[in-house]
Amino acid sequence: MYFYLGQSDTKLDTDPAYIVVMSGGGIPSESGLMRTYMTAEVAHKFKTAKIIVTMPGDYTDTLSSSYLMKKELVIRGIDENRIIFENRGTNTRSQALEVGKLMDKKLPTLLVTSPEHMYRSLKSFQKIGFTKISGQAAFSHPVEASFLFEDNELGGNNMIPNIGNNTQLRYQFWSHLNYQIIVYREYVAIAFYKIKGWL
C-alpha cells in the first residue's frame, strides 16, 4: 500500500517547467529533508525548471522552515534564482490552490513529496485544473551494509536468545508496523478529501 501511494499514474512527455516540492514536516525533519533532497536531484536533471517551495511562513526569516528548505536546495547546488515560494497554503488542498495562482496550470509540472502523500497531492492538483502533472516520490533507500552480528562475540548475558542474525525481528517488523500507521493515516486523509470534494 505504501509503494502504491507513491506511484504517479501520469507521466510527462516533456521536461517540466516547474518542480513543486510539498512542505512536509519542515526542516529539519525526515519528510522535509527527503523532499528537498529529491527536489535537488530532479532539479539537476531538469535545469531550466523553476522550483516552487510550498511552506507556510515567513521565507525571509532565516530560522523559518521555508527559508531552510531553500538553503538545503542551495547547499545541494541549486541556483537560488530558480526558487519561488508559496507560503500561504496550510494543507495539500490550499497549497495546490495557491500554486495554481503562481503559474499556468497547463504547463508541465513535476510534484515532489513523500511516497504516502503522492496520490493525494497529485489528485488535489488535478482537481483544480493541472493538466500536465506527474510526481516523483522521495523514497528512501536501504543501507547496503550488513547489520548481522554474533551476540556471543559481544559479551553480555548469553541466556538471551541470539538475535544478531534475525533482521526480521530487529528491523523489518518495526519498519512494517511504522508503514502501517503511515498508510492508515493517509487513507483516512484521502477519504476526508474525497468527502470534501477535493479529489
Task: Please tell me about this protein's structure.
This protein is α/β, with parallel strands linked by helices and 199 residues long. The chain is built from 6 helices and 5 strands; from the N terminus they run H-E-H-E-H-E-H-E-H-E-H. 43% of the residues lie in helices and 12% in strands. It has a 5-stranded parallel sheet with strand order 3-2-1-4-5, with helices on both faces. Helix 4 (92-102) packs across helix 5 (115-127). The radius of gyration is 20 Å and the shape is globular. The mean pLDDT is 92. It comes from Vicingus serpentipes. Residues 18-188 form the DUF218 domain. This is YdcF family protein.
CATH class: Alpha Beta
Note the run of SSEs as H and E: HEHEHEHEHEH
The total number of structural domains is 1
Gyration radius, rounded: 20 Å
Q: Please tell me what the overall shape is.
A: globular
**Helical content class:** 40-55%
Distance between the termini: 19 Å
Name the structural class. Answer: alpha/beta
CATH architecture assignment name:
3-Layer(aba) Sandwich
If helices are DSSP runs of H or I spanning 4 or more residues, what is the number of helices? Answer: 6
Number of E-state strands = 5
Strand order of the largest sheet: 3-2-1-4-5
Flag low-confidence runs: none
CATH superfamily: HUPs
What's the oligomerization state?
single chain
Question: What fraction of residues sit in β-strands?
Answer: 5-15%
CATH fold field value: Rossmann fold
* Integer average pLDDT: 92
The largest sheet, given as strand count, sense and whether it forms a barrel, is: 5 strands, parallel
Protein name: YdcF family protein
